[in-house]
Design goal:
Number of strands: 16
CATH class of the largest domain: Alpha Beta
CATH superfamily of the largest domain: Dihydrodipicolinate Reductase, domain 2
Strand order of the largest sheet: 1-2-16-10-11-12-9-13-14-15
Radius of gyration: 23 Å
Distance between the termini: 74 Å
Helix content: 25-40%
Strand content: 15-25%
Bound molecules: nicotinamide-adenine-dinucleotide
Number of helices: 14
Shape: globular
Number of domains: 2
CATH architecture of the largest domain: 2-Layer Sandwich
Length: 467
């Protein structure tokens, strides 16, 4: 009997030690009124993925997992990419796979191998004729499936956010570094025309030093809540505080600030409102009292300061009836851009008018004609030549196609991808970090460094182009 008790105690101790080891490795301590996240040392069998490029892939063979609202659009877009072939399709439901096969039929493409069920993705990943696994599944499945795919020798492209916790962010980084496989998050908003052109203008110096940026995801999801398979999105929102969908807002503005290519997001503070509409929506959907306390605040605001003294503001709101807004705002020492509700540019302090002090219009947006002319002149090199086709193929007005085109282009030419695994981890890390800040009364959070000290090694963001 004594032996049994000792064995049980030893097992319990081992379990709690291993839990504690995980907590210490990926978790945080509270020090001087700040939440300080740990950055674990890089294991010996891993190498940095900064600037990583694989050998050129003549034809990129793709397997799609997740064919709900988002996945089929990607299948359709890939039908227009000459250097890619759709090899396999997978969803929980076989009928969704069949619907996606019909997209191939309509484009005169051969039908793909089919997988379904909860673990169908495993068989897809085990195939030896797939280069890239493209994921559009519920958030909770992104990292587990991506890790499995990389472990099975596949590059992965993951819908947003790539991960829902810091532990998952590190799982993506560690697996990518160890397997030497690309892990790109599909942050399509980085490829929208206004954002791309502004990025080009920033890199050409038209904004001077960029000092402050803002991004947001404000999108009333009222019409869609019932459409998510198994209610995954509402289930996640009702259980979590924080900016649970940060990457459309944070992605493009991190590119503007050269995050982990010369600067680093350092400290974050997040604050949310109560769940006024969130609770009402839950009461209506599930019946009053079923969801005792809906967690996700109607409006969540996050402030971040960077190592180089810049500031970032990100906002999340999916439950109030406000018009769609990703904000995308850039404040530089010599210029200003704002995307929503109207695309506006104000470039150049020399245009400041001398006005009466109570005239608030000293600084004005340039005229629409002047804005259009300068934006045409500074069109980003990666959208040049592909913009027309992108608009025709579509996907949020073309940006989704530019993203897919670039992904295949870089793999085909053996170039570094536009977004690396550290982007995926940094942008997705806000999911947990904002929640932890809010849960501690908006305490500042010192963010982990997914590059492990290499955030200043690259000199700015570059989009690789073949000779
Ligand atoms: N980048 C964008 O603009 C954008 C837009 C919409 C959605 N998204 C992202 O795309 C992802 C999917 O969103 P959605 O709106 O299509 O949701 P959805 O619920 O409509 O689709 C998810 C699909 O995954 C399938 N699935 C669930 N478990 C699976 C499993 N084990 N194996 C294979 N398939 C499985 C479901 O059956 C469903 O068809 C999410 O991450 C979301 O954030 C991105």
């Amino acid at each position: 009997m004594r032996k049994v008790i000792f064995a049980a105690m030893a097992a319990l101790l081992a379990l709690s030690c291993s839990k504690k080891a995980v907590q210490d490795e990926y978790g945080y301590i509270i020090k001087d009124n700040q939440i300080v996240y740990n950055t674990p040392a890089r294991p010996a069998d891993q190498q940095s993925m900064l600037n990583f490029a694989c050998d050129p892939i003549e034809n990129v063979r793709v397997g799609f997992v997740g064919l709900g609202m988002r996945g089929p659009g990607a299948v359709q877009r890939f039908c227009y990419l000459e250097d890619a072939t759709i090899v396999a399709l997978c969803d929980l439901y076989p009928e969704r796979v069949e619907d996606a096969q019909k997209i191939l039929d309509r484009h005169g493409k051969p039908r793909a191998a089919e997988y379904s069920g909860e673990e169908g993705y495993k068989e897809l990943c085990q195939r030896d004729d797939i280069d890239l696994v493209y994921l559009a599944v519920p958030w909770q499945l992104h990292t587990p499936i991506a890790v499995y795919a990389m472990e099975h020798g596949k590059h992965v492209a993951i819908e947003v956010p790539a991960a829902t916790s810091i532990e998952e962010c590190w799982a993506l980084v560690n697996t990518s570094e160890r397997t030497r496989k690309h892990c790109m998050m599909l942050e399509n908003c980085c490829y929208d025309f206004f954002e791309l052109t502004c990025l080009n203008m920033i890199q050409e110096g038209l904004f001077g030093e960029v000092v402050h940026v803002e991004g947001a995801y404000c999108h009333n999801l009222d019409p869609y809540w019932d459409e998510y398979q198994g209610d995954w999105r509402m289930l996640y929102n009702r259980e979590h505080h924080g900016d649970v969908y940060p990457t459309h807002g944070i992605g493009p503005i991190c590119e503007d600030l050269n995050i982990h290519r010369g600067d680093k997001m350092d400290v974050l503070v997040s604050m949310d409102t109560d769940a006024f509409n969130g609770q009402a929506i839950a009461d209506k959907r599930y019946g009053k009292g079923v969801v005792e306390k809906y967690a996700n605040g109607d409006n969540t605001m996050t402030f971040i300061r960077t190592r180089k003294g810049k500031t970032i503001l990100v906002e999340h709101n999916v439950v109030t009836p406000r018009p769609y807004n990703r904000m995308y705002q850039v404040t530089g020492t010599k210029g200003f851009a704002n995307k929503y509700p109207n695309e506006g540019l104000a470039l150049g302090a020399e245009n400041v008018k001398f006005t009466a002090v109570d005239d608030l219009d000293a600084e004005e947006y340039m005229s629409d004609a002047a804005r259009d002319a300068i934006m045409a002149a500074y069109e980003h090199p990666i959208s040049k030549g592909i913009a027309e086709k992108a608009r025709a193929v579509g996907g949020h007005g073309g940006m989704d196609f530019i993203m897919d085109y670039r992904l295949v282009y870089c793999l085909h030419n053996g170039l570094p991808l536009d977004q690396d695994v550290y982007d995926a981890a940094e942008w997705s890390s806000l999911v947990e970090l904002t929640e932890v800040s809010i849960n501690h009364g908006s305490m500042p959070v010192v963010m982990p460094d997914f590059t492990r000290g290499e955030w200043n090694k690259l000199d700015g963001l570059k989009f690789a182009l073949a000779e």
